[in-house]
Amino acid sequence: MVLSGVDGPVVDVRNQNGTVEFDGTAGRACARITLVTSFAPIRVRLPEGVGYDVTARTSFGSIRSEMPLTASGTIGADSLNGRIGAGGCTLSLTDSNGNVEILKA
Question: Quick one: which of 18, 22, 79, 83 is 20 to 30 A from 52 by CA?
Answer without folding.
Answer: 18
